[in-house]
Please model this.
Amino acid sequence: MITVHNEGVFLRAGVPCSSAPVSPEEGRQETMAYRILQSHNTSGDPDQLKIRFDALISHDITYVGIIQQARASGMKAFPVPYALTNCHNSLCAVGGTINEDDHQFGLSAAKKYGGIYVPANQSVIHSYAREQMAGCGKMILGSDSHTRYGALGTMAVGEGGPELAKQLLCNTWDIPYPKVVLVYLTGAPKRGVGPHDVAIALVKATFASGFVNNCVLEFAGPGIASLPIDYRNGIDVMTTETTCLSSIWETDEVTEGFYKAHQRPEDYQPLHPGENAWYDKYIEIDLSTVEPMIALPFHPSNAWTIHEFLENAEEILTQVEQDAQKRYPKAHVKLTDKIHDGGVWADQGVIAGCAGGLFDNITEAADILRGGSTGNGTFTLDVYPTSVPVSLELTKIGATADLLETGAVIKPSFCGPCFGAGDVPANNGLSLRHTTRNFPNREGSKPAEGQFAGVCLMDARSIAATALNGGKITAATDVDYTPAHHDYHFAKSVYDRRLYYGFGKADPSVELVMGPNITDWPKMQPLAENLLVELAAVLRDEVTTTDELIPSGETSSYRSNPLRLAEFTLSRREPAYVGRAKAAAALEAQRLEGQAPETLKALLDKVGDGGALLKTTQFGSCVFANRPGDGSAREQAASCQKVLGGFANICYEFATKRYRSNCINWGILPFTLDQDTDFPYENGDCVFVPGIREAIASGREDIPAKVIRKNGDVADLLLHVRGLTADEKEIILDGCLMNYYAKRAE
Model:
């Protein structure tokens, strides 16, 4: 289905080629990515980018913190269109008034600073961006990892909140020029194969090896013409799961049709690579060979064709059980009992969010189910259209009625099933979802309390085929149906009658509406001369996700209260972390008050004059993980550590650029180790980094440190802090991004 090539390639006359009459250096300037990035680059240096985006977008888990950071740093008005959507904390029954309090804050901020406010259940974040903000050749920054609009000719990036705060303060997103990877599409998908099948196959082919980590994916080739725009959007949004940086696609009359349908024809322009575009490596996808896919817990890359899975279900589900039991010893995991009566049976189907809830996905699901039944047993099917305009059009063409008649339930636009705040299955339930992720706890269970459920990702078409068979997992290619094409008609009047459009109309007289849960960030100290950190969590998993660092789901209700949210840090992965971090922070508080905690003095005596070092050595907690930060862009994965007194992460590499940036923006030292460095240390061991402030200030990247073991032994350790920009150095020295801006405002 998919072939990856780890060598450079030219695209000549629309065909991958090993040679061209230009050099690779010249050829890279012919990519769509190069042209768009350089048109937004303010640095004057094509290799060191300082990007200003055309628009910003956030949802109600992130926008309160972003606006709080920006206003504390001197922001007076939003300098570019900034949309505040309300699609995550939409269950206003959870957490009392605090979710709706955030929404009221968002509306007041849109009025005060000149923003766009999208009320709850009107649209999920990425649907609104596609419908109203994307444009060919534009760049959009969003505080959600699935900020991807490449199929609409827009380079979009998902980052943590501080990067949006920088843009609100008219500063830049700074990165070295990334590698660009060609994704060359040929053929056409067979009936029953949907965008999630292509996307899951792509993630399977690239994730584990890090083949496209922090690269830009550039989609080209004759296969694009065979794909409707929803199909392209459905593949594109899942490129996040490959850990790429961004994406961009060739545009054509299909793309133009999207902009015309959404009453924005001026935002279309043809985009194509130049005659001799050069790419660092490339991927070939023959769409005609893609089969219906299923991604097993706990990652979209843990994927098989549905037929492979059904043939080997006992073995595969046993592996999932063993993995789950290892992660969650309190849970009693049992999924192999889903195998009976000649098949594998799921308990639930969900079609939702920025990947699943698209018009074409839902109409084709209706085509498959029309006249049938989802059954009278355990299995349920819930469908969440991605926006009210989509829901309205589904109603007009009869798809909503067709689905309701089968026993499916139609729900409002909401991202909950994607992150564990909706449709939580029963214990040991198996849910099939056309959503973006199936990480641990993304379905909302609490395995640390003995609850467990699993999510498998599948395309809406195969979920509908499964529903037609009462929950027996079925590939859509095995069902006889005729998909009917429906032209999409976008009703902008729905938004005009409900949304607040305030860009360019900032009103400083408006008072922000601050509910009791909305609090300011606690004071954070600048980096001291030396650093001593205690390992409060040592995570040996191959990859640690941001969901594990700060859980999603019901915890999102506290995202506007930094201290309250921090109580959940690592709660589903290392429950003792918060207590350890707080104990370290208490000792640091004593030190700052001029006391001399004997515990700290005794530790520092192991590496020098403890009494003297106490005056110049900051003390806090540290997380070690092999490869932290895969998954969501949420800044809270880092900010919660800092709120609890965390000063460092130590790892072999960061899983994503965005998590590393989050750490830096919160003043957390992003230490890395050489791959061959042994790290046998455990919770309670401490790492002393002498001269860390001078090392960061001077740009030293190799930093000698000492490990002080609990038994009193001392060992050498070489740490690295590589590739910091000048601004990033200052942010770390100042203690966090807010301190950095406050210092300059003074």
User: Anything to note?
Assistant: The mean pLDDT is 94. The first helix runs from residue 24 to 27. The radius of gyration is 25 Å. The chain has four domains: 1-30+178-291, 49-177, 293-298+307-493, 530-745.
